[in-house]
Amino acid sequence: MLQFWKKDRQRSPQTSPNKLKNNCNLHNQIDQELSVYVGPLSRFKCEILSKQLCEAKSRLALNIEDVFHNKIALSYFSQFMEARGHVNIFNLLMDLENVPFKLDTPTLKKTGSLVGTPCKTHQSGNSDISDTAINDYSFMCTTKIYNQYLCDDATHKVRIPEELKLSIQIALNAMETSNCLAQLKDYTFHLIRREIWLDFLKSDWHCKYQIEVMTSGTMTLSDVLYYDPSYTAFFEFLEQEDYVNIIEFWSAATNFEKHYILKKDTADYSQIQNDAILIYDKYLSLQATYPLGISDKVRFEVEEGICGETETSPDCLRPAVILAETFLESNCLRPFLSSQQYLSLLSYVMSSSSRPNHSPASSVTEGSIDTRSVGDPDGLWRRRKHI
User: Fold this and answer.
1) Tell me, what's the pLDDT at 68?
2) Distance CA 352, CA 210 (A)
3) Structural domains present in the chain
4) How high is the mean pLDDT of the chain?
5) Which of 11, 62, 281, 327 is deepest in the core (most CB within 10 A)?
6) DSSP states of 268-303 as a string?
7) Terminal Cα-to-Cα distance of the chain (whole angstroms)
């Protein structure tokens, strides 16, 4: 049985239990010796909280799908592919990325044309594209790709499995090409992951990409939290600033939500509630072991999520997580990006690439970068090369 202690200035110290579902009692009680103004968030004022968590993705933790939506990454990856002799594979994937696979929701210009294509729209609506025009465009793209990369006398030959090549030939003969293009794209991504991607992540090009992101002045909280080395450096910084309870709560709450979302079909809701209560009791309640000092409003929202009329949801702690992220972004991110921990992280990234006849550990020693260098990625790279 859980007792949530709420602050109610209008009531006497007597408790007034409200029976809720899930065998959970909610009590309102005043504790004269207990103040909500305890904890790092107790004096944090934020008029409007976002309804969304920060994106669970860091630009420093790059994957192949990210490259084609990230101009900086695309620049360095293209240089790597050219240097390694993979130009044809890279150009094939670039061509495939420009093909409208989602034919039901194509991207439109204001004129009503498909971006990068000569397709026209129906006159019946500004956002409707003729199915025939789309199919014609898909057939045209597939024919071009097949002739340029896949056929026996292709000018820029890319080897693919014979069964995939045969299916594309059949699709071309039937003039129904959308599915085979998706299969070709999947195979090309698979090929890069299996034979190329790990080499890129170990290369100077990837290292230079990370340095440029880290010194661009555009680092976000997501970039920091969702890349293990930067998370570790941020944790050390927050520990130094006496904000470690915030990042520990954030980690516990986000891992809790992720764990039970992945188990949504087999989740035991009583276990979800019990685990949520453990985190609540440790960080959020008025009698928390490590109180964050969240507001009554946020605490009540969390309590309702844990012991409300419906079964406990994996996102029941989200209001407090959003508050913690807002605080970290507003009060901690900028100081961290000019801290010694961040400079040490930059040194770590600079020394992480694998180069022939070069020991990564010898490139830059931890903490050897000064703050004047952070805004000059080219200068940092030249320094790394000559150390």
Assistant:
1) 85
2) 11
3) 64-101+132-209 (1.10.167.10), 219-353 (1.10.167.10)
4) 78
5) 62
6) -HHHHHHHHHHHHHHHTSTT-SS-----HHHHHHHH
7) 62
